[in-house]
Write a structure and sequence with these properties.
4Fe-4S, PqqA peptide cyclase, nine-stranded mixed beta sheet, single chain, binds iron/sulfur cluster, 365 residues, binds FE2/S2 (inorganic) cluster, 35% helix, alpha/beta, TIM Barrel, globular
């Protein structure tokens, strides 16, 4: 039985942004659905008991919860590394200091682009200034500043400028995450999918800047899988090394799996994490290679990419057990090719970006 080392604690779906590629489920949970502090503390203890060593506090925007310090302190008591994944909106100097005092180890700040216009275009927010302030607050609090930007057709041409911003703000690491197309991003795929020439230009920028920056800032390139011949080894394989606990306590093998509506996932309200990890039907469904259909079952790459992404297979075909359509051997590969044909036409056909909407209530818990 594999052992998880990472827990993604999605403490809330509440968020001040409206990103057009949001990776949270299409049906967002409300504040009244969220686990309370005691339940989260139990989840953290159970995760540590299972072997987890890293806890990523995420959302939505995790800062909307007032009990983050309590959760971080429990992680520290148990010797777990904690990372805050934040939009930066709502981060104050005193909050950062309180989190550091509780034991927070690092923070990952997301940006949407290099300027206020790009934040407004992609996230319907004008608060780029808040992000710059948050970067300063994170650094002043003594935390390593990791940054993240989702890349797509609307900002790939600005890659040089985006990297400049992160250098200027003092980031130690920048994750250049090409958008993945499930959940909300699938709705906006025609407008977000880059063309091949645009992507090639961006790869050249990435390689040049990686060389130039050396150890000053680490650049990490997350592949746009539609342009690859083989799928990504998503999550290192289903239920292999990480788990996600959603705001309401439902436990998933990956952050997107709530979209697989044909599967039933268990909750920490009904079972402990160890049972869910080892015994629940959902976690066992695609673990290992026995479940694989052909062409994966007879493919020499089956231990390399594990048949690709289950969420992407479901999003594109309605069947999570099919070969990821990104794979050139998949019988459904035409679904990916068709999307690329549209992306490489002069103009994408979709009319307008569809923004994520969610009401943010005040801090609680
Ligand atoms: Fe991977 Fe399956 Fe494609 Fe082989 S056939 S490369 S295992 S997705
Ligand atoms: Fe869920 Fe790939 S995102 S398995």
């Amino acid at each position: 039985m594999p052992q998880p080392y990472g827990l993604l604690a999605e403490v809330t779906h509440r968020c001040p942004l409206h990103c057009v590629y949001c990776s949270n489920p299409l049906a967002l949970l409300d504040r009244q659905d969220e686990l309370g502090t005691e339940d989260w503390l139990r989840v953290i203890r159970e995760a540590a008991g299972l072997g987890v060593v890293q806890v990523h506090l995420s959302g939505g925007e995790p800062l909307v919860r007032g009990d983050l310090e309590t959760l971080v302190a429990e992680c520290r008591r148990l010797g777990l590394y904690t990372n805050l994944i934040t939009s930066g909106l709502g981060l104050t100097k005193s909050r950062a200091e309180a989190l550091v005092a509780a034991g927070l180890n690092s923070a990952q700040l997301s940006i949407q682009g290099d300027a206020a216009e790009s934040t407004d275009l992609v996230a319907a927010s004008k608060r780029f200034d808040k992000k710059e302030a948050a970067a300063r607050i994170i650094r002043d609090a003594g935390l390593p500043l990791n940054m993240n930007v989702v890349l797509h057709r609307l900002n790939l041409d600005r890659l040089d400028a985006i990297i400049d911003v992160c250098v200027a703000w003092g980031a130690e690491r920048l994750e250049l995450a090409n958008s993945q197309y499930y959940g909300w991003a699938l709705r906006n795929r025609d407008l977000l999918m880059p063309g091949k020439a645009q992507l090639d230009d961006a790869v050249a920028v990435y390689e040049r800047r990686k060389q130039e920056l050396g150890e000053r800032m680490e650049l990490l390139w997350i592949l746009p899988d539609y342009y690859e011949p083989y799928p990504k080894p998503c999550m290192g394989g289903w239920a292999q090394n990480a788990l996600t606990v959603a705001p309401d306590g439902t436990v998933y093998p990956c952050p997107v799996a709530a979209e697989i509506t044909t599967m039933a996932f268990s909750s920490v309200r009904d079972h402990d994490l160890a049972w869910i990890w080892t015994k629940s039907e959902a976690f066992q469904a695609f673990r290992g290679t026995d479940w694989m259909p052909d062409p994966c079952q007879s493919c020499p790459r089956k231990e390399i990419d594990f048949g690709g992404c289950r969420c992407q297979a479901f999003a594109l075909t309605g069947d999570a057990a099919r070969t990821d359509p990104v794979c050139m051997h998949s019988p459904d590969h035409h679904l990916v090719q068709d999307a690329l044909v549209r992306a490489n036409q002069d103009k994408a056909e979709a009319a307008e970006l569809v923004y994520r909407r969610h009401t943010v209530t005040t801090r609680g818990h």
